[in-house]
Amino acid sequence: MATSARVLIVDEDPENRGDIERRLVKAHFVVAGACGYGAQSVSLASEVAPEAVLVGVEEPLARPLQTVEALCAMLPNVPVIAYSSRADAETARRAVLAGARDYLTKPFRAGQPVQSILEQLQRKHARNGSQPSQAVASGIVITVYGAKGGIGKTTLAANLATALAHLTGGSVALADMDTQFGDVAIMMDIPVEKTIVELAQRSAELNRELIGEYLTAHWSHVQILPAPFEPTGWRAITAGQMEKIITVLAQTHDFVVLDTASCFNDVATVALDKANVVLLVSSMDISSIKNTLVVLKLLASSSFPQDKLKLIINHANAVDSVKEGDIVDIVRQEIFWRIPYDEEAGASVQSGKPVVLAKPGARISQSILDLASVLIGKEKAPQTNHKGGLVGRLLRK
Fold first, then answer.
1. Buried b vs exposed e over 10-35: b needs ≥16 C-beta within 10 Å?
2. Alpha helices in the chain (DSSP H)
3. Closest by alpha carbon to 335, among 300, 303, 305, 371?
4. Tens digit of pLDDT for each residue in 229-272?
5. Pair type for strands 222-225 and 216-217
6. Could you tell me the domains of the chain?
7. Which positions ≥6 away from 302 have C-beta within 8 Å?
8. Strand, coil or helix: what is 191?
């Protein structure tokens, strides 16, 4: 069999990827792409259509094994080969159970991993194969929307993104699509060097490499795409440009959290349409409840999928002027989650540190961490009667 097959390399370590690539190129394989674990690997595989995939499996094992499983599920006729510095039988067994066709240990023997790829391709050729999967993979998009300013929407978005990164160890992007204020950079205490508006202006050339140049790596392991400080920069930005940014973010990250403006404009509409889950935030004051009712009516009239819309009540004040039961009666929407009042929330905003990491024992931190757990299906929701992960239920529909 000719050795010009297209191979995808998946490994978190750039040096490992480089070493594997040199071995394959020397053997006249075509390196179709190289990337890290998670959604970026699955989306890249769907784009480059590899004939074989190599996945590095190192500690912690959860993410690489999940990546092997996801790649095998999307490309059932493409051999996925795992390699690792771990020579124990248990790791090899788990890799094979995840779907790997072979398990190689490092340092490689002479001729590896080339020989393994050739053997697997020969076996595939003997079986005559079948048509490749047409699945298109992407990460989960969570849009945080509120019908009124000052209700804690950005605080929730920033801390939810941080909680998702902390709980899953996966790749998480936080994009500031608030065309009015755009406070994510201030809340996360990062410098604003390149913004989402500048990226949108290059949408014609947008790809996974370019978008990485505009993301700021935060110490919480969240990748942030900030908004400009001056809202005038948004004037020339189109819905199509924002849609492309969201698409590429979802192709390169396991989770994408979008913080939006408290209005209905083209950018907010795209963020709502592209979301797998919409967290509609309302505080307990009358004006916020009234505006939330208006939003719910507008979405219902536009045939917006109601199953992905989740009402979040943020107790932003120590004393509420209305009762939760009254809110349900007014908006006719069940409350999905409640964020408790906590003075630590305000303190974290001033310090520029997400409260879920700065004060993990605080009531608000526990609530947001629990919300993130529910969204990813880690535990049963204590605040609802739903079973299983919300994201999982949505994606199974």
1. bbeeeebbeebbebbeebebebbbbb
2. 14-26, 39-48, 62-74, 89-98, 114-127, 153-168, 184-188, 196-200, 208-213, 239-252, 266-273, 286-301, 324-331, 343-351, 355-358, 363-376, 390-395
3. 371
4. 888 889 889 999 999 999 999 988 989 999 999 888 999 999 99
5. antiparallel
6. 6-127 (3.40.50.2300), 140-395 (3.40.50.300)
7. none
8. coil
